[in-house]
Design goal:
Length: about 270
């Protein structure tokens, strides 16, 4: 759209797009898609925004459950982010996952939407115990880039920036971005679509921080495994998902309230 004047923004995806790590189920979730919508509304006050994402969904579920409703909303901008939950499954096929993503790319671009997607950072630098699946991340990123190129989809290369693995951009579970992380993702997408007022500041490193000792790192890994990895493995063994019984938080195109467009947010303060 000329001058970044998007009027109908629809977000498809999983927990990252739903906003986990940025707020909670009591006060409400914000996330990068909400933050991007706020940036869009600053340029186009008539913007209407829908968020169809549901936590726990794999790429095939995002396509099956969200593509039809998204097309019915006739977006002029759509973000499509998925595949992380697939990465964590025992059986993983990057080409198959990217195939589901590509079906969404094709359908949405054919309907006239400007589609944007993301790449993912090196999980081994965020969660040391996840180093065995690093190759999966790199493979999926390559497939996503190739699929995006075939359909004129814009790729926000969040996965290639060193700052993306800074622990301060991640919540305690290390699976979801922190408020600051979601703000950086929103800024990356804004720059990728050349939204007025956007720039590459999101790529800049955070202020230096103290480096933990080996013992502190080992202790942190044990605490993380007990608090987050154990419960996650338990759900997998019981064939349960964090998204069971959940529906999208914003299924209809609605205007943003004045309060939601406020830029006074702790997620934009980059403390050490």
């Amino acid at each position: 759209m000329p001058n970044g004047e998007y009027l109908r923004y629809v977000a498809l995806g999983d927990s990252q797009t739903e906003g986990l790590g940025d707020g909670d189920d009591t006060v409400g979730l914000r996330g990068f898609a909400d933050r991007l919508a706020e940036r869009l509304a600053a340029v186009s006050p008539e913007l209407r925004y829908a968020n169809l994402a549901v936590r726990g969904r794999v790429a095939q579920q995002v396509r099956a459950e969200q593509l039809g409703p998204a097309l019915a909303l006739r977006p002029d901008l759509a973000t499509v982010v998925g595949g992380v939950n697939d990465l964590l499954r025992p059986r993983f096929d990057a080409a198959e996952v990217a195939g589901h993503m590509e079906e969404m790319f094709a359908a949405l671009t054919a309907a006239g939407a400007h589609v944007v997607t993301l790449t993912f950072p090196d999980v081994g630098k965020i969660v040391p115990l996840a180093r065995p699946i690093r190759s999966r991340v790199f493979d999926l990123n390559s497939h996503i880039r190739e699929a995006a190129a075939r359909h004129g989809v814009t790729v926000a290369e969040t996965g290639r920036q060193a700052v993306a693995t800074d622990p301060r951009l991640w919540s305690a579970d290390r699976l979801h971005a922190s408020p600051l992380g979601h703000e950086r993702i929103a800024a990356a997408v804004a720059q990728a679509i050349h939204l007025p007022g956007s720039d590459d500041a999101w790529t800049l490193p955070l202020p230096p921080r103290s480096v933990p000792t080996g013992w502190q790192t080992a202790g942190a890994e044990l605490r993380w495994a007990a608090a987050f990895l154990g419960p996650w493995l338990g759900r997998r063994l019981r064939a349960q998902s964090s998204g069971d019984g959940r529906t999208s938080k914003r299924p209809q195109l609605l205007p943003l309230s004045a309060a939601s467009r406020s830029t006074a947010d702790t997620g934009q303060r980059e403390s050490s």
